[in-house]
From TrEMBL:
Residues recorded as bearing N6-(pyridoxal phosphate)lysine in the entry: K230
This protein's GO CC annotations: cytoplasm
Swiss-Prot/TrEMBL GO biological process terms: anthranilate metabolic process; L-kynurenine catabolic process; L-tryptophan catabolic process to kynurenine; NAD+ biosynthetic process; quinolinate biosynthetic process
MF annotations from Gene Ontology: kynureninase activity; pyridoxal phosphate binding
Function of the protein: Catalyzes the cleavage of L-kynurenine (L-Kyn) and L-3-hydroxykynurenine (L-3OHKyn) into anthranilic acid (AA) and 3-hydroxyanthranilic acid (3-OHAA), respectively.
Pathway involvement of the protein, from the record: Cofactor biosynthesis; NAD(+) biosynthesis; quinolinate from L-kynurenine: step 2/3; Amino-acid degradation; L-kynurenine degradation; L-alanine and anthranilate from L-kynurenine: step 1/1
Quaternary data: Homodimer.
One protein family per Pfam: KYNU_C
Protein name: Kynureninase
Hydrolase among keywords: yes
Length: 417
């Protein structure tokens, strides 16, 4: 494999590194949890603040970026990133709020079909949302929520997913990329298997959007949700997004609110809900303008770079990372699938002292991500991580492990891990 220096010399995306704010000497490997601030995102946020300052309430319809249609503008630009029609995408809510919206809309249990399939490795919030919808419909999660089991505690097998798609299942909800191991699931194949059995397929794209291309419409996915604050770099708590296939657009929103109204009729103040066309109907309340603003700037970078180029560099970065870990730190168990088509944008390492290793890395100027009970997640991001950064990070980690410097820290997580 080419050296880090050689890879940096050929890196077509190297020019983007200077667009992001990062302390001198720091190596940021936590973009799969919170992406860094770009100059473009900062500028857009300041522009939206200025529009409030200058226009007051008229900012809803005036200025460079009128607030009233900002979500729709962003949605049209997000659509190519997730491989959807503009009418199928809405920038709104958060992952959990959007799961609630999608389930309240498409989950219509009957005596024959009432179960929801999830997986035992999924992020807790997704599970909490599913449990609440089952309870709201008088169903017991202990029997109506089916969890796909993992054979190794890190990954899922396609055969095990399909085995759970029984005749009483109504909905399948899985992550596109497993947050602990970085495994990328075959969305197209899983969706086809679900549809062949009369089951709707939904996915949480939290750990894949912005790291790799998607083709949600072509893959026939029924619905999807995501955040924009990881690889999409929209800032902490940035507004999320949802996708709902156009064949479901006739469905009234299960959780209705006035921003789901037809824009021409919204301010009629009629108590009769006039549903917007497309995914816009599944908005609820007034958009969080300042939480959406940074996404405007971030999208400029994605449109400039292109998702294919981002994915290509991401794969090279993670390949170099795992190669160097394997050569120098075999005591760290790499639990991320090897094949390019089976992994997302981060590498997950398992070690019983993971929490204290992450603390030692931070002291050494590396920002990693710890996930209980024993996972170190490292996410080199195509926009702002160089191949030399990866090499230097592994060197610092090697010093920590071989010098047992991690023993200077306790092996329990911080309040926010």
């Amino acid at each position: 494999m080419a050296t880090a220096f050689e890879l940096d010399q050929k890196d077509a995306l190297a020019r983007f590194k200077k667009e992001f704010y990062q302390p001198e000497g720091q190596i940021y490997m936590d973009g799969n949890s919170l992406g860094l601030l770009s100059k473009q995102a900062e500028a857009k946020l300041m522009n939206l603040l200025a529009s409030w300052k200058v226009h007051g309430i008229d900012g809803w319809t005036e200025g460079e970026e009128p607030w009233f249609t900002l979500a729709e503008e962003l949605s049209a630009r997000i659509a190519p990133i997730v491989g959807a029609k503009p009418s199928e995408v809405m920038v709104t809510g958060s992952i959990t709020a959007n799961i609630h919206q999608m389930l309240s809309t498409v989950f219509q249990p009957t005596t024959k079909r009432f179960a929801i399939v999830v997986d035992e490795l999924n992020f807790p919030s997704d599970i909490y949302a599913v449990e609440s919808h089952l309870r709201l419909r008088g169903l017991d999660p202990a029997t109506a929520m089916r969890k796909v089991k993992s054979r190794d505690n890190y990954t899922l097998h396609y055969e095990d997913i399909v085995a759970q798609l029984q005749g009483d299942v109504a909905i399948l909800l899985l992550p596109s990329v497993l947050y602990r191991s970085g495994q990328l699931l075959p969305l197209r194949e899983i969706t086809a298997a679900a549809h062949a059995r009369g089951i709707l397929a939904g996915f949480d794209l939290a750990h894949s959007i912005g790291a790799l291309p998607h083709q949600l419409h072509e893959a026939d996915v029924d619905f999807a949700v995501w955040c924009h604050y990881k690889y999409m770099n929209s800032g902490p708590g940035g507004t999320g997004g949802l996708y709902i296939h156009e064949r479901h657009h006739h469905l009234p929103p299960g959780t209705a609110g006035w921003f789901g109204s037809d824009k021409e009729k919204q301010f009629d103040m009629d108590h009769h809900f006039s549903k917007a066309e497309g995914a816009g109907a599944y908005q609820i309340g007034t958009p969080n303008i300042f939480s959406m603003a940074p996404l405007l700037g971030s999208l400029e970078l994605f449109e400039d770079a292109g998702m294919d180029a981002i994915r290509e560099k991401s794969l090279k970065l993670t390949a170099l990372l795992r190669q160097l870990i394997g050569e120098h730190l075999p005591e760290l168990l790499d639990v991320t699938p090897v094949e390019d088509e089976n992994r997302g944008g981060h590498i997950a390492l398992s070690h019983p002292e993971a929490a204290r290793i992450c603390k030692a890395l931070k002291q050494a100027g590396v920002v990693p991500d710890f996930r209980a009970p024993n996972i170190i997640r490292l996410a080199p991001v195509a926009f702002y991580t160089s191949f030399s950064d990866v090499e230097e990070m592994v060197g610092r980690l090697k010093n920590i492990m071989h010098g047992e410097l991690y023993k200077n820290f306790t092996n329990d997580r911080n309040v926010v891990a």
